Amino acid sequence: MQQHSNPDPDPLRTPGLEPGGGVPPGETPPAESSMPGAGPQETHNPPRGWAKGPLTLILVLVVLVAAGFLAFAIALAL
């Protein structure tokens, strides 16, 4: 039968720990820096903003839904 060891280190024998479990400054590694060049280079940057076709379609749908709610409200009022 195989014995498994405890994966947690003994706090009394762990180097760099202060009493109470704190870590003194300089014991931890610095934070990870950002890596702007890590991904593939983008060669195509589409223009900013919405294309006219999808924006017009969305606006037409919004107007139709608003007109439907208005018609429903008028029908309820009569």
What can you see in these coordinates?
The protein is mainly alpha-helical and 78 residues long. Helix content is 33%, strand content 0%. The chain contains 1 helix and no strands. It is elongated, with a radius of gyration of 32 Å.
Topology:
Layout lengths: L51 H26 L1
Pfam families: DUF6480
Organism: Streptomyces xiangluensis
Keywords: Membrane, Transmembrane, Transmembrane helix
- The termini sit apart by 84 Å
The SSE order reads: H
Low-confidence stretches: none
- Quaternary state reads single chain
Helix amount = 25-40%
Structural category is mainly alpha
The description of the largest β-sheet is:
none
Instruction: Compute the CA-based radius of gyration.
Output: 32 Å
- Strand percentage lies at under 5%
The whole-number mean of residue pLDDT values reads 78
Total beta strand runs: 0
Total DSSP helices: 1
Molecular shape: elongated
InterPro entries: DUF6480
Keywords: Membrane, Transmembrane, Transmembrane helix
Protein name: DUF6480 family protein
Pfam families: DUF6480 (PF20088)
